[in-house]
Specification:
By secondary structure, the protein is mainly alpha-helical. About 80% of the residues lie in helices and about 0% in strands.
C-alpha cells in the first residue's frame, strides 16, 4: 500500500510540475512587466516585453528541463528585485547551463542580450551625456549585433558621472561583451604612469 501511495504521489507531482512552473513563470512575467511599465519609460517597457517573449519561447523549448526553467525564473526574480548584476550573471550562464540544441543555444544568447539591453536602458538612460551611446548599445544588443555595442559601451564606462552601482554593471557588461577592454584600459593606465607620459 505504501508503495502504491508513493507511486501515485510521484505521478501526481510529475504531472503537476509543468503547470506549477508555468504558473510561476506567468506570475513572474506579469510582475516584471508591471514594474517595467510603472517606470514610465516606454523604451524600457518595450524591451521588457521583448525579453519576456524570448523567455517564454526559450522556456517552451526546454520541455521538462526544470533546472533551466528555474534559472530563467532567477533572471526575472533578480530583475524584479533590483539585482541587475545578478540577473545578468544568471542570463549569461544560461547558454552554458546544459546541453542545448543549436536553436536553444541561440535563444539562451538572445535572452542574455535582451536582458543586457534592459539593464542598460534601465540604469543608464538618464546618465548625463550618454543618451546616444545608451541608445546604440540597447539597439545593438537587441539586434544581436554585439560588435556595434563595444565602442559606445566603452564610452559609457569612461563617463565621469557613474555611480558605484553603475560602475559594477558596466564591469559585468564589458566582461561579457568586450573582455579585452578591461585589460587594455589597465595597460593604458600602466603606460600613462611611466616617466615621460
Amino acid at each position: 500500500m505504501k508503495k502504491l501511495f508513493a507511486v501515485i504521489t510521484v505521478a501526481i507531482v510529475c504531472h503537476l510540475s509543468p503547470n506549477v512552473y508555468a504558473q510561476a513563470d506567468a506570475s513572474l512575467i506579469t510582475q516584471f512587466l508591471d514594474q517595467s511599465k510603472a517606470a514610465g519609460d516606454s523604451q524600457l517597457a518595450g524591451i521588457a516585453t521583448e525579453l519576456t517573449d524570448k523567455i517564454k519561447t526559450f522556456g517552451a523549448s526546454l520541455a521538462g528541463n526544470a533546472a533551466v526553467k528555474e534559472k530563467l525564473d532567477d533572471v526575472l526574480k533578480s530583475l524584479t528585485g533590483g539585482e541587475d548584476s545578478a540577473a545578468l550573471t544568471s542570463a549569461f550562464k544560461l547558454a552554458t547551463a546544459a546541453k542545448f540544441t543549436p536553436e536553444q543555444t541561440d535563444l539562451a544568447r538572445q535572452v542574455g542580450n535582451v536582458a543586457s539591453a534592459y539593464v542598460v536602458q534601465k540604469n543608464f538612460a538618464s546618465l548625463a551625456g550618454a543618451q546616444g551611446d545608451v541608445a546604440t548599445v540597447v539597439s545593438s544588443l537587441r539586434a544581436g549585433n554585439l560588435t556595434s555595442a563595444i565602442a559606445p559601451l566603452k564610452n559609457i564606462a569612461s563617463n565621469n558621472h557613474l555611480t558605484d552601482g553603475q560602475k559594477q554593471l558596466v564591469s559585468v557588461l564589458t566582461d561579457k561583451y568586450a573582455p579585452g577592454l578591461k585589460k587594455a584600459a589597465g595597460a593604458l593606465d600602466g603606460i600613462k604612469k611611466l616617466p615621460g607620459f
